[in-house]
Design a protein that fits this description.
alpha/beta; 2-enoyl-CoA Hydratase, Chain A, domain 1; eight-stranded mixed sheet; 8 strands; globular
Length: 315
């Protein structure tokens, strides 16, 4: 069963009515197939029209949907032969950031990304996708390994931000994020990053400083959460919707601003309604981008990254 967001209530009510009609018609000789078909068409049209005009705050809610696919879901539906690699060789393992060797449409890649988890147990284990220093140092290790073996790097970004706890600061959180960003920019192999849910602050940039940055159409990407921005500007998180509008957090805004390069289409109603279809779109898009980058030299790739980031906001 899909969990409905607040703005999806009209769709939820129609689906409830459809379910009631189906239950009432069981064992009944009355043919209600025409009425059911009418309501299902109305529900599908309403869902499509709702998602065609989402506000930035509504897109933020979709990006955070509890059933939205995360790293492990994309590994299952879009990649093959995933071999996870753990540990940063300095401190320990961080399950908020996962990575390892994988194949995408037969192509060997180094796959790295945030995992938020789907239930209480897995969310705690993965720290809700908030990476710690050892997670970013693991990402650096895997990127260096990819460079050594000539494997393109693919990252899936989905975090509200890096973990802000005292222990993370003690272990050098800011330095680890900066080093991870540096490692992205210095890679001698192609790198394609995709914002699949939330792209929050430096915790996202540390895995997204690529020459090609893609984004799902209902994902969000920003330097701070709308609630955090509202708390700073208006001293209340209740103005989060206004902050989301002003911050231009959506894929559509960021494509126009040149922050991202490509928008990946989601199934109607968001990736949470059909994770497998969303994963296929993701795989197709990344595969096309890697094909376009395959023949570029290490120097050309580094120049491409440098130029794309220096051009942001220059106009």
């Amino acid at each position: 069963m899909i969990a409905y967001l607040e703005f999806e209530k009209p769709v939820a009510q129609l689906q409830e009515r459809i379910a009631e009609l189906r239950a009432a018609s069981e064992g009944d000789d009355v043919d209600i197939s025409a009425e059911l078909a009418r309501l299902e068409t109305k529900s599908a049209d309403l869902l499509a029209s709702t998602y065609a005009s989402l506000t930035p705050w509504q897109k933020t809610q979709v990006a955070r949907h509890p059933q939205r696919p995360h790293f492990c879901d994309f590994v299952k539906h879009a990649f093959e032969e995933f071999v996870p690699l753990g540990g940063d060789r300095y401190y320990g393992e961080d399950e908020a950031i996962m990575g390892g060797f994988a194949r995408l449409r037969g192509r060997r890649v180094m796959l790295i990304g945030h995992e938020k988890g789907h239930d209480t147990e897995s969310r705690i284990r993965h720290n809700f996708g908030m990476g710690k220093p050892e997670g970013y140092r693991k990402a650096i290790r895997l990127m260096e390994l990819a460079g050594r073996f000539g494997l393109p790097v693919v990252t899936l970004v989905d975090t509200s931000g890096a973990f802000p706890g005292i222990e993370a600061e003690e272990r050098g959180q800011a330095e680890a994020i900066a080093r991870s960003t540096e490692a992205c920019l210095a890679l001698p192999v192609p790198m394609v990053a995709t914002i699949v849910g939330e792209g929050g602050s430096g915790g996202a940039v540390a895995l997204a400083s690529a020459e090609r940055v893609l984004m799902f159409e209902h994902a969000v990407y920003s330097v701070i959460s709308p609630e955090g921005c509202a708390s700073i500007l208006w001293r209340t998180s209740e103005k989060a919707s206004e902050a989301a509008e002003a911050m231009k957090v959506t894929a559509q805004h960021l494509k126009r601003l040149g922050v991202i390069d490509r928008i990946i289409k989601e199934p109607v109603g968001g990736a949470q309604r059909d994770p497998a279809a969303a994963a296929r779109e993701l795989a197709d898009s990344i595969d096309e981008e890697l094909d376009a980058l395959a023949d570029l030299s290490a120097d050309a790739l580094r120049r491409m990254r440098e130029e794309r980031f220096l051009q942001i906001g220059a106009a």
